[in-house]
Amino acid sequence: MKKISALLIEHIWELILIVIFGFLFFYRLGWATLGSWDEAWYGSIARTISQTNEWMLMQFNGKPYFDHPPMGFWLMAISYRLFGVSEFTTRLPSAFLGLLSTLLLYKTSLLLFSKKVVGFSAALILGTSVWYVLRVRSGNLDSPFVFFYILTIYFSLLSRKNMKLFPITMLAFGALMLTKTLVGASALPVIDLILFSQLLNPIKHWKWIMLGLASFVLLVLPWYYIQDKTYSNFIEHHFFTIGTRGNSASSYFHLEYELPLFYLHMGVRKWYKLWLLAGGSLILLFKFLKPKVFIVLVWNAVILYPFLTTDETHIWHLIPVYIPLALITSYGLWSLGSTVAALIKKAKTPLQSTCKKYVTNKAVQAIYVVAIIVIAGFQIKIFYHEVIPQNRYIADDVDISKRVTKYDQTIYLDDDYLPLAVYYSERNMNQMAYQPEEHKTLVNLFSSSEQNFVAIARNWAVGNLDAKGIDYKILEQNGSFSIVSRP
């Protein structure tokens, strides 16, 4: 019993994190239907993988998909294979890895700063940043990406002392690249900085360096090679159209920081100003001269800078920045508080003896932890209803997509929720907006020679057929949508 008690005390911070984020990330995880774009889009791709057993050539709606690498989709497909296809299993890999990420950040902080309260605070900051919670609770790529990013840095730090772990570092880095290619590449300069002295002596560590590079290549290269051999436009589309969003090299020297910083503020909310305070204090107090503090500051700059050079940055793009932001904020506030406490104890005032008695390390630690917990509590209180569904609700677009499953004809969709329609109907669809002119609108479709089809359209759009005197038949209808065909 004493051993169990001692073990619980030793790991009390991790247990608290598991309780808080186990609830926040998993509670009512499957209540809401999938989001119309990325979530339902990725879920449809993962379901196709699990059904066809084709793990290298991904497809969506019967067409090739190679915007992103497959790691996130593989994890989702495995979830489907193990537990079936549902909203919960779509989000399960994200929620599970989101929880592991908070624990892993705690461990990473211990390697950097050797203080459990700082690690606990860093995990609490990451886990209560509202956009991190939103994406952890959705079937997207952000949570797997954050997990593999922290895992890469964690094993890089371990490899400083034991280069036998370098192959694991490179496997983690490979998994990161297989989640999001170019954003994942931002970890490479951080790895180089952490292992600078080891990489400067390749003769001593050549075996582990070569094994690490081989591990990375064997994990990463096959998917990219197969895509390049299969699709002639893969390189241009994957690396330039999607990866750099078509930006030129010169654009990275032109700052567009106002919107990205606004999004960063909205994404982490109360932690934003504390991040600025903590980062500024680390510089002004010359704490950046400590090698590991310098590493985290450089990491923050490396991963944030590209997002500051484009006005196409979206709020969720900045989620990887939350990792070093959490570390800087937690350690910077701790360092600032410790410095202020030291100054108070040294100040020659009538209360000097009282200060020396009560301004102790334990007191500073208690104030620091309580302050972080209170702020985190306010964060959760503010965003709780934004991220936790209050009731089960099936939207009309989901309802009509489920109803269309029973029809074997070609399906046309006269709206913009294609991924959601494909996911819930389990059918390939033709989105009218991207069809030839004769099928681009409901009126055009019914005026064409096309015969064996059904169309999903908003109820008001069906009225256009009445206005044109075109005969049709309503097969299904709800408050917003109809499924129509020829009579």
Note down, in words, how this protein is organized.
It is a single chain. The protein is mainly alpha-helical and 487 residues long. The chain has two domains: 2-387, no CATH class; 396-485. The chain has helices at 2-10, 12-26, 38-52, 71-83, 87-113, 116-127, 130-136, 142-161, 166-177, 181-184, 187-194, 196-199, 202-230, 234-243, 258-268, 271-284, 291-304, 322-346, 352-358, 361-387, 396-403, 418-425, 442-447, 459-467; strands at residues 59-60, 63-64, 410-414, 430-431, 453-458, 473-477, 481-485. Helix 9 packs parallel to helix 13 (202-230), helix 16 crosses helix 18 and helix 18 runs antiparallel to helix 20.
Indicate the topology.
Elements: H1 2-10, H2 12-26, H3 38-52, E1 59-60, E2 63-64, H4 71-83, H5 87-113, H6 116-127, H7 130-136, H8 142-161, H9 166-177, H10 181-184, H11 187-194, H12 196-199, H13 202-230, H14 234-243, H15 258-268, H16 271-284, H17 291-304, H18 322-346, H19 352-358, H20 361-387, H21 396-403, E3 410-414, H22 418-425, E4 430-431, H23 442-447, E5 453-458, H24 459-467, E6 473-477, E7 481-485
Helix pairs in contact: 2-5, 2-6, 3-4, 3-22, 4-5, 5-6, 5-8, 6-18, 6-20, 8-9, 8-11, 9-13, 11-17, 16-18, 17-18, 18-20, 21-22
